[in-house]
Write a structure and sequence with these properties.
- The chain is of the alpha/beta class and 457 residues long.
- It is built from eleven helices and 20 strands.
- Strand 11 and strand 12 form a beta hairpin.
- Helix 7 crosses helix 8 and helix 9 crosses helix 11.
Length: 457
């Protein structure tokens, strides 16, 4: 038996961190303060979508349910979620639906996820068995104060099954380093075994049953849930250190999960600040870091399902009408780019090393690891000119591999002409990443210009 959707105050109450960036003297100024607050509240994709949905509803967007019929009106603002970890928000045009300005991002970040039977004992300690989610940079996870967050499904005494968010916002675990005295060669390079060397310590003298007991206690404190049975969970460890502005001029933003919550924040700001005259779509998919092949990932049908339903009501009906809409539209896929690192300048092509605070980065790859082509790149350069922001270009070295984004996948699934851009950052896939505080505003302004642009071609 399924429950009603959890109330909004229950979700929001579960998200508030103990220390907010507003209380942290190291985080101030705009838009960096808002960026930091946003990322601090996003320990998992489910929390990310809950916060985004809350902000959208506060701005007058109406929540849709994929299981119900939709009644849409020109000029309306709506959104829909799938798996509680992916979201599509739409500003419907006031006039006839002829084109859409799509902004894409992803809600997930590399990290450590708990295994289903996570509790394990060693040397008098209860530990948590973990598996790697995505391409985690492992070494920075050592000696960090770790909290726990994610989604838990419970069965209440009346048989009702409910999914709720869990946010343990204090340090409850740590992965201690091995002392250099016991491994004198550690600084000469040592492979890390994720199975045996990454499980965090959790409770001294604890038994395996203590994990279940603690989860139930936390659910009671956060949600008032008592007498329930935990059926399953999707939980992740995260660094509880709050975001900060770093540097003499506070020119840097340091935080967990900037890849790619920074793009989610920027895309949401651009949507909310758009003038409402054009059709605008914000899609934030889960599972990008593991290939996007899921029902709510970019390779899945989520975005296409939503756009087909919208077109059926407000556009030219039929498959031909849908294709015409997609070909008249454009997508800007936003995912952070590799900034030139001052200690590793040789890792970049000499002519394509983006600088922090140098503006958004157009990402190019001849082998289609990025979806950018000269036509979509020209559009973005013109948007940056219009918004008065600088623009940069990234191409990986010819002797190195290249990552990818939701851009090529979405372009393949929908056929929409697409561009890959991103804010430059350091330490991608680390537990704490660094970006330029000015670049947040630069990309936001460019995307607002995109959202308001009357003609795309």
């Amino acid at each position: 038996m399924a429950c009603e959707l959890p109330s909004r105050n229950r979700i929001v109450a579960a998200l508030a961190p103990t220390t907010t960036p507003d209380e942290d003297p190291h985080v101030s100024g705009s838009p960096s303060r808002a960026t930091a607050r946003f990322s601090a509240s996003f320990p998992t994709p489910w929390h990310a979508v809950a916060i985004m949905a809350d902000r959208l509803e506060a701005a007058g967007f109406r929540r849709l349910d994929e299981r119900q019929s939709w009644q849409l009106s020109p000029g309306e603002r709506v959104f829909v979620t799938r798996n509680d970890s992916s979201i599509v928000a739409l500003q419907l045009p006031r006039q006839e639906l002829e084109s859409l300005r799509m902004i894409g991002a992803h809600t997930d970040s590399p990290g450590l996820r708990l295994k289903p039977n996570a509790a394990q004992n060693s040397a008098g300690w209860l530990q948590l068995g973990v598996e790697l989610y995505g391409g985690v940079l492992l070494a920075p996870w050592y000696d960090r104060d770790l909290g726990l967050a994610g989604r838990v499904h419970v069965r209440h005494a009346d048989g009702c099954i409910e999914g709720v968010l869990l946010y343990v916002d204090r340090p409850i675990a740590i992965i201690p380093s091995l002392a250099i005295h016991l491994d004198r060669e550690v600084n000469n390079g040592r492979a890390i075994n994720a199975q045996t060397q990454m499980p965090p310590v959790f409770l001294q003298g604890g038994e395996k049953a203590d994990l279940q007991r603690l989860l139930l206690e936390w659910l009671e404190v956060q949600h008032g849930i008592a007498g329930a049975e935990i059926l399953d969970f999707e939980l992740a460890l995260y660094d509880v250190q709050p975001p900060a502005l770093v540097g003499i001029e506070r020119e840097l933003v340091a935080s967990a999960r900037l890849d790619n919550l920074l793009s989610c924040f920027i895309g949401l700001e651009a949507l909310l600040e758009s003038d409402g005259s054009q059709g605008v779509v914000l899609v934030a998919n889960d599972h990008e870091e593991v290939g996007s092949a899921s029902a709510c990932g970019a390779q899945g049908p989520f975005l296409g399902d939503v756009l087909r339903r919208v077109n059926a009501q407000l556009g030219e009906p039929g498959e031909e009408g849908f294709i015409r809409l997609i070909q008249a539209s454009r997508m800007i896929s936003c995912d952070n780019a590799h900034a030139l690192h001052p200690n590793f300048t040789d890792k970049h092509d000499a002519a394509h090393g983006p600088a922090l605070n140098g503006g958004p980065v157009i990402k190019v790859n001849a082998n289609q690891r990025y979806a950018t082509n000269s036509a979509t790149s020209a559009l973005f350069r013109d948007l940056c000119r219009e918004a008065g922001v600088p623009v940069q270009t990234f191409v990986t070295r010819a002797d190195m591999g290249c990552g990818s984004t939701i851009g090529p996948i979405t372009a393949t699934e929908l056929g929409v002409p697409t561009l890959d851009v991103g804010v430059p950052q350091w330490a991608m896939h680390s537990i704490r990443e660094t970006a330029g505080s000015h670049d947040v505003e630069y990309l936001t302004r460019a995307l607002i210009a995109f959202a308001n642009r009357p003609q795309l071609v």
